[in-house]
Amino acid sequence: MAEYRLGLQLHGHTDDVRGICVCGDAGIATSSRDRTVKFWTRNPEKESEYVLSKTLAGHSSFVGPLAWIPPSDRFPEGGIVSGGMDTFVFLWDLQKGEVAETMKGHSSQVTGLAVDTNGDIISSSMDCTVRRWRNGNAIEVWEAHKVAVQTVLKLPTGELFTGSSDSTIKLWKGRTCLQTFSGHADTVRFLASMPGLGILSASHDSTVKLWALSGQPLLDMIGHSSLVYSVDAHSSGLIASGSEDRSLKIWKDGVCVQSIEHPGCIWDAKFLGNGDIVTACSDGTTRIWTADSNRFCSDEEIAAYTDLISQYTLSRKTVGGLKLMDLPGVEALQVPGNSDGQTLIVREGDNGVAYSWNSAELKWDKIGEVVDGPGEAAQGQVHDGVRYDFVFNVDIGDGEPIRKLPYNRSDDPYTVADKWLLKENLPLTYRQQVVEFILQNSGQNNFVPDPSFRDPYTGANAYVPGQPSSSSNGNTPEPIFKHIPKSGMLSFETAQFDGILKKVAEFNSKLSSDSSCTPTHVTCTEKYIV
């Protein structure tokens, strides 16, 4: 097999490129965390190049899955379906560059899209449902899994599949589950067709699997070192997968035949008809890789890309548990040591090298290169000087910086969520969403809350904002409130005022008349509770 090399880089998005859609011979569509969809068409002067044709802006949050609608009388230049974190599904008319249909109904992020042979649009969501849309209306809705549905796949032969955070794949006929495929150890993130053989699945367990349509596992592809976000197949028999480990891997007969490093995680990877591979990277760039020497980019571009990868690798490399870039350079060896035998680790090129101070000869003696121990690289991540099992990047909204969420498997996710929301000054109504994010991304899909815990407000074993308080007739004792009445104003920079007022009024009503505030005293003005 000829080796793939960089062919073209598409710059245009200002944030992570999240999804790719190959639009027949018309072009390529890409989605991004910058809330846009971009459509790229072939350069008429040079067929191997793509140029930006249209930017489709309408989503209010980052855009993920995409699907292609071939040209028709209604859409002479075709259409693109997009799903966003804003819970909407949009159908775009490419000729006009406008939204032709807005599909509202999901209550959480849209994670997957497919177009049926009759033109129906099928969407999956973190809200655990799958919806079938026709002319902008949901004609079928069903709970496909008990936890988030991450992907949906519709085959031309009629089979419909879903993959979920429950680690399973389900085969559907209408709203009836015909079969459940079990085999992955973590979230099934993406599904793709492998014509003539079955379907492919990419998982957070770092593997790619090939399944027969009967549910029989046929092949395991093991080689990624982190979450696998995408997978695709070509008629040549090649398979491409993209991962959090920053590598595009190309597989043949279950064997990885090439691995291509990127300067960020790869959210999506798709084959073009000619065998080229398009990747969506978290550095905001879409890249096309080719095995045809006629489509290779210039030697200067390849050298610049190689240098980019080298700099990125150096910035993340560790030696002895320390970041290589944090080590002093060789100039530190010009400063004498303080005592005989004192050790010093310096950066020499791409390596960390240890030296020992020789007080008799007043020089530094080279000891040797420093490397990480057998398990050091996998001992978690450091945040604010503390090592954790995980340090997640959390996107809380457009225009907001990425927040760091540290977590250990031994921690209670509810407690971690509470402390983190308070630290970041975020509403507690995000609590359950944060907990689900932690559990999904840490692989703790079967977590069960501690049954001995009882929230004093709801009587439940986990606090859910908006739930009514427990009654005195239940098993939970009536809570004793020591801080009401409270006179004066309380200031809140970020708060759910309606919820606070409702709860304060509820607490107030339980107090004796000589202790309670009058209803007119419990009011809200701007960011103050009075």
Automatic annotation (TrEMBL):
SUPFAM superfamilies associated with the record: WD40 repeat-like
Matches recorded under Pfam families: PFU, WD40
Alphabetized UniProt keyword annotations: Cytoplasm, Repeat, WD repeat
GO cellular component, one term: cytoplasm
Gene3D superfamilies: Leucine-rich Repeat Variant (1.25.10.10), PFU (PLAA family ubiquitin binding), C-terminal domain (3.10.20.870), YVTN repeat-like/Quinoprotein amine dehydrogenase (2.130.10.10)
Domain of life: Eukaryota
CDD domains per the UniProt record, alphabetical: WD40
Domain PFU as annotated: residue spans: 356-452
Ranges of the WD repeats in the UniProt entry: 10-40, 56-102, 103-133, 142-173, 181-221, 221-252
Keyword Repeat: yes
Database matches in InterPro entries: ARM-like, PFU, PFU_sf, WD40/YVTN_repeat-like_dom_sf, WD40_PAC1, WD40_repeat_CS, WD40_repeat_dom_sf, WD40_rpt
Protein's recorded name: PFU domain-containing protein
